[in-house]
Amino acid sequence: MVFTFSDHKESCTEEVDDDESSSSSHPDSPEMDRNPSPPPEGAEESVEEADAIGSTVYSKHWLFSTLTRLIEVSEQGEGLEELSEELEDELCKVWDMAMDKDVASFLQEFKAPDILLGVIAKSHCPRLTEICVGILGNMSCFHDTCVSLSQNADLCAVLILLLGDSDPPTLLETCRLLVTCVSQPDVAPMWMERIQQQSATCSNLCFIMRSSTNVELLMKVGELVDKLFDEDEGLMKSWLSELPSESDRDKDTHQDITSSLLEAAIQLRKESPEALEVYLHALQLLTTVHEGVQSLVSDGGCGEALWRFLCEVVCEDLCQPGDPPLILQEQKALLAPAVALLSVLHNSLQTDISLSLVCSLLRILYLHTENQQSLPNGEDEEDKDVQLQVLVEMAVELLSTILTDLPKVRLTHNLLHEAQQLFIFTPRKGFYSIKLI
């Protein structure tokens, strides 16, 4: 756009001449001061609209100035260990703003990821690193910006390396970002390849699972591992066979991925059923490949410890005597992977079968039968809960195997007698339902 000022200058000259002639014609009159004319109607609104980011009320100018300050501060390098309260507040505003799609796109166009990458690389301030990763994580929530971020190889490499950081909030934001990216089908293969190429990734995640007591962080790490295993069987197999490297922080006390998952699950048992569900599902995925089963049941594996843990969860935490039938619906997501793991382990380990486990499996079938009786007549098969059906089938299969192998396993002599005292079997609609006395 070309601006010309000639007409405006001439009009200004004419106004000056008029004022001078008026003044000269009235030499004795006092000099008159005049307020400037108001701006044209709507001018302020148009300026505000031009400064707004997309359809938001956020200011481009403010965002530019904040990012400029961020660059200036990052130049301090090792000298910066803490942020000023004012700058931290402003950066946190950017973090929140990045959850808006228009802002995320604008940040991408403004090359903010490159700026943030430079800041992260130089930062010796944990809070600054956390905020920068958090901004990138919010940007990755949108498909287009996630694709653009994922194509930045240097940025991705730095983010994966951050899994070795010692700051829990930074680790949490890093895991959130990685979970978001590997959940996007268009970019997941790129991330899988980079994660597998970075040899320290598995040991870094194992270290977090073994040492952290932060429930939120353990939850996100579990989600990341579960997603990686679900998406890439090759990566899962490579991690199962991974040996400690020279860079492993705990190579002398190295623990494999299976024992690390179990240790985190034990930590989360009483803290977060939702997080425990994630870890049990990840462990179940391991048993879908031969290498995973072998890592559990081989000498030195954690199969027996996992068996004992699962028995405690199923027998002490879930589907207790007196629970209403609907409890099965609430607990099915935890019960399904637990029963699946017990089935695999029972087929491979010579373990004691407790009366409590038999009773818990029977109780699952009883509660399911009670729920079935409460359904309206004529309900279509497609309306049934698939996950619940799978759970019931696995419980039936495991119970059948246990009862078949009764003479082969070490059981207390009065197991059957006690079971008869606890349960009464009554035929109902062609299926033996179980009624607790």
Automatic annotation (TrEMBL):
Region (Disordered): which ranges?
1-49
Give the GO biological process terms. Answer: positive regulation of synoviocyte proliferation
Q: Name one GO cellular component term.
A: nucleoplasm
Q: Which compartments does it reside in?
A: Nucleus
| Biased composition annotated in UniProt, kind: Basic and acidic residues | 1-12
Q: Which InterPro entries match?
A: ARM-like, ARM-type_fold, Synovial_Prolif_Regulator
Recorded coiled-coil stretches: none
Keyword field: Nucleus
Identify the domain of life. Answer: Eukaryota
Q: What is this protein called?
A: Protein saal1
Query: Which organism's genome codes for this protein?
Result: Pygocentrus nattereri (Red-bellied piranha)
